[in-house]
Amino acid sequence: MKEELFPHTPDDFHNNGNAILILGIGNYLMGDEGVGVHFVNTLDESEFPKNITFMDGGTGGFLLIPYLESHPVAIIVDATMDGKEAGTVSLLTPKFSNDFPLSLSGHNFGLKDMVEILTMFERMPDIYLYTVSIDNMDPMVTELSPKVQASLAVVKDKVLQLIEELNIKNTILVE
Fold it and tell me: Of 15, 92, 134, 170, which is least surrounded by CB within 10 A?
């Protein structure tokens, strides 16, 4: 067994004893760029299986690493400026930082940086990244555009379907 330079044991503080993390990230004060935060904050947790951690990651950057490394599965929702029509929902399953789109919305310390750190320490969860295409970032706007707002229901349906598929494959057991 390989000795870890910086040993880590997932703890109940960071995972609440749960196997799946649903993480919404983005800047709430930048219009559509905050779609991940809006997504998590509008969820009715009672519609989901138990044993899931729901988290508004905002622009938390490296402070989110302990939460990601403490869950075997992370379902992340974030905005991207990829040239697709606003509100388009895409699923990526990145394994390395290069697998993330170049146009992922700009946070001071982004997902790509977190993945580099988690990969370096061999603590990468299985990541399912739902991106929502946006046209622009509007400073000091807290509402979503109509197309991006409508995408929240699509993302929710896709996340629920993914969780069901993970349970069927016995990859993750949730109640």
Answer: 170
Quote the CA–CA distance of 53 and 99 in Å, as a whole number: 25
The answer to whether 26 and 59 are in contact (CB under 8 A) is yes
Q: What is the pLDDT of residues 14-24, one digit of tens each?
A: 898 899 999 99
Q: Which residues pair with 22 in a beta bridge?
A: 54, 75
**Separation CA 52–CA 35 (nearest Å):** 20
Residue 109 to residue 68: CA distance in whole angstroms? 15
As a whole number of angstroms, the distance between CA 19 and CA 8 comes to 16
What does the block give as tokens for 8? 């880590």
CA 116 vs. chain centroid, Å, equals 16
What is the value of pTM for the model shown? Answer: 0.88
Taking the CA atoms of 130, 37, 148 and 152 in sequence, report the sign of the dihedral they define. Answer: positive
- Give the pairing of strands 52-58 and 20-25: parallel
